[in-house]
Write a structure and sequence with these properties.
- With 141 residues, the protein is of the alpha+beta class.
- The chain has one domain (9-116): HIT family, subunit A.
- Helix content is 27%, strand content 18%.
- The protein has three helices and five strands; from the N terminus they run αβββαββα.
- A five-stranded antiparallel beta sheet has the order 1-2-3-5-4, with helices on one face.
- The two termini are 28 Å apart.
């Protein structure tokens, strides 16, 4: 049985205690429209079990989540006539996570919609990238 958190708004939505505009559901996943969308059709896809971050989601849910993201993403694009689609997932408050139940945002995008991605720049120290790559690779084993 998947874990739940009685205080979590998404767990309450999964349990049917709070209504949502459901767009897709499987045994382990739920997708519904965001109540404060970036643009119309902005959907949330989440595991029904309560897993606070991406790092807490069991690997065995990965395939079902990916299938849900793909199916809902295609449907969002077709329904809205979007030119593109952003897939976003925030972990921890410092990264913008507001609900501590892992979830993915599917945001329909349109040419010249005014939304911008965050700024990027190259590493200031040319060796920093290599050092970080080694450290991350070691920790990911």
């Amino acid at each position: 049985m998947a874990p739940t958190d009685s205080e979590c708004i998404f767990c309450k939505i999964v349990a049917g205690e709070i209504p949502c505009a459901k767009v897709y559901e499987t045994e382990s996943c739920l997708a519904f429209l965001d109540i404060a969308p970036v643009s119309g059709g902005h959907a949330l896809v989440l595991p029904k079990g309560h897993y606070p971050t991406l790092m807490d989601i069991p690997a065995e849910l990965g395939g079902e989540l990916l299938q849900a993201l793909s199916r809902v993403g295609k449907a969002v694009m077709e329904a809205t006539g979007a030119d593109g689609l952003n897939l976003m997932q925030n972990n921890f408050e410092a990264a913008g996570q507001l609900v501590h139940h892992a979830h993915y945002h599917l945001i329909p995008r349109f040419a010249d919609d005014g939304l911008r991605l965050w700024p990027q720049s190259p590493y200031e120290d040319p060796d920093e990238m290599g050092r970080l790559a080694v450290k991350i690779a070691d920790l990911a084993k």
